[in-house]
Amino acid sequence: MNTENVVFAFFIVLALTLNFGFTLGDIDNIEHHNVYELFAAIVISLIATVMKFGDRTHVGAVLLATSLVADLQLIICALIWGGVNHLTDTGMTPGIMASIVSLSAGALLANICSVILLIMETNMMRH
Amino acid sequence: MQHVLYLLLRRLRTPIIALISVYAICVLGFTLIPGQDLDGNPWRMDFFHAFYFVSFMGSTIGFGEIPYPFTPMQRGWTTVSVYATVLTWLYGVGTIFALFQDSNVRRLIQRTNFARRVAKIHRPFYLVCGCGVTGQRITKLLDDHGINSVVIENDQVLFDRFEGDELSLSVPGICADAADPEILALAGIQDPLCIGVLAITNNDHTNLSIAIDSKLVMPERLVISATQSKETTANLNSFGTDYIIDPFGTFADQLYLTLRQPYKHLLHDLIVNPNHNVLASPHQKTEGRWVICGYGRFGQALEKKFLAHGIEMTFIEPDPSLYKIPAGSVQGVGTEAKTLLEANITGAVGIIAGTPDDADNLSIIITARDLKPDLITVARQNKDANKPMFRAADVNMIMQPGRAVANEIYMLIRTPMLMQFFNAAREKDREWSRQLLMRITDVLQDQPLDTWACELDSTNAPAVSDWLDRDGKLSIAALYRDPRNRDNPLSAVPVLLKRGDISVMEPSDTTELLTGDQILFCGQRAAHTHINWTLSNHNALRYIITGRYEPGGHIWRYLRRKWSSNKTDERISEESEKNQ
């Protein structure tokens, strides 16, 4: 067992679970989506991305790419959230929440890809 | 090759993760710690403001407590955050600086830059491996003629000197071992634009591996390799190295020419070394015995050459046990009068100071001249920087092995026909050399000499080959007439005509040309341009043959044909017959 692999897998899976937790709930219900969960999802996703830096294998490159996609989607979520609350007078509405959650659902797909790739790589290692 | 960016990212992984974590914790802290607004109502910072506050606090800009003054709890957390973020930044920035100091990373960056510069060359270039005196001189010569080159040199001192050179073109260079295939690949050995590889390092083995690498990648590409041993020569020959140069042999050859074939030497020197003032005079008496100091590789090459031509010599060598030195040699450096007298300097016609040490050589010359003032003195100058000293010493002949070999190699790659010319010239007698020399000097009128080869085929000489293909007749004299006024001959001399396997030295003016002929010209640079014009421009050629300017464009030609149907063609054939 390799500590580095444990940490690596931990962050990738954690990024997925947090992302999933935030996305879960009615799409336009403000009550169902917690800002702290989004924050945690973004931070963990960023850390997971950095951990993939510098891996020159092909799987490593694809993992980095899916991770970057997740980051991008989640950061846009945060920008919209912060924007409607502080930069404009709109405030949070069910419509805006729906678009934030759908963006985060996109990030969820990217994170699922990451985990699938991770599982595949683990399987290949075993052979 | 590893990519620099990947290496940097991998090394920076920990500092970046640390930064993200510290920022996340600080932001989270600010959103969780309760605060108060101006009216004392409980208030919590949102993520937007927390991130804003941590951003300017972390970079220690500090705009104050916003949007409301902080509670003691928040101030405490701010204190913790300030130390945490500043320390993390220091750690991150420190790592970046340390990375750029890291020799591994620096080498990688250097190599990446080098590869990028090589890739930017979009014209044919030569790969010069080894940048000693010879390599440096060749790079300079190539640069002077607008030809790109790429340099690999293993020695840091030599490499620094190369980098200090002012060259007009961008010449990418790297300080690395040229025997390493990875370096050769970076230097573009696999690039089809690389038209020649010069393996001229001091190390025979390195030269060998460069030559093999090049021949494996591109068998038809030109490879010139220097060598110092017979074994390497045989090895280089076995896989088809195009030219193998033995620096000391070449040098001994030239020294022999200088002493015994002054006109040939002058001719050689004039052609190979256009701006060089020759110190040898053809009127000097050089018959007799020579004293040669130094029986190293240079001395041995001289011995071989001199023995073949029956010249007497006495060697002075400080360490005779190292080599199988000929009988009658004297032990010593030659810088002392005693040693020189022992070698019977007073009975000799000249002295050759051929040690690898410039100071010793000068000292030998000065001591020897004191003993016998009318001695012919030949000194070997090893370092370019010592030029003023050698000039001041008033030596009859200064030989620079590195330069001589560089000129030889440059000649080979620029005009391979020159090599054939010099080989054929060896067979000719003294009078022939003298007359050709006079003819070329007459034409030059103190202008620098240019030597060039032209091939009469459809790519290099479209006009002439077109004319010859239509059964036109053209003599060699027509080629060097001025295309602006055909009564003036151009300042050029055809010195060699090559047709298939036959070579004719100094072809006569009436020689009829055929398609595919190759002609080697010597003359002024301006003549080169004019001859090229005649070769490729139909109108210029037509003028030279007929003495009349003809309209050049399609419409004009058409109108003219309409107007005077076949008259022109008849006239041309008449004229050209008259010219023959």
In brief:
The complex is a heterodimer of chains A (127) and B (580). Chain A is an all-alpha fold and 127 residues long. Chain A has helices spanning 3-23, 35-51, 58-87, 94-126.
Walk me through this protein's architecture.
The complex is a heterodimer of chains A (127) and B (580). Chain A is mainly α. Chain A has helices at 3-23, 35-51, 58-87, 94-126. The radius of gyration of chain A is 16 Å and the shape is elongated. By secondary structure, chain B is α/β, with parallel strands linked by helices. Helix content of chain B is 51%, strand content 14%. Chain B contains 25 helices and 18 strands. Chain B has a 6-stranded parallel sheet with strand order 5-4-3-6-7-8, with helices on both faces. In chain B, helix 11 packs across helix 17 (401-414) and helix 22 packs across helix 23 (538-546). Chain B is flat and about 115 Å long. In chain B, 35% of the residues are buried. Chains A and B meet through helix 2 and helix 3 of A and helix 1, helix 2 and helix 3 of B.
Task: Name the pair of protein chains with the most residues at their interface, and give those residue counts.
Answer: A-B, 17 and 22 residues
Multimer state: heterodimer
Please state the average pLDDT score of chain B: 83
Distance between the termini of chain B: 64 Å
Enumerate how many helices of chain B there are, as a single number: 25
Largest sheet of chain A: none
* Global shape of chain A: elongated
Helix percent band of chain B = 40-55%
Mean pLDDT of chain A: 90
Structure class of chain B: alpha/beta
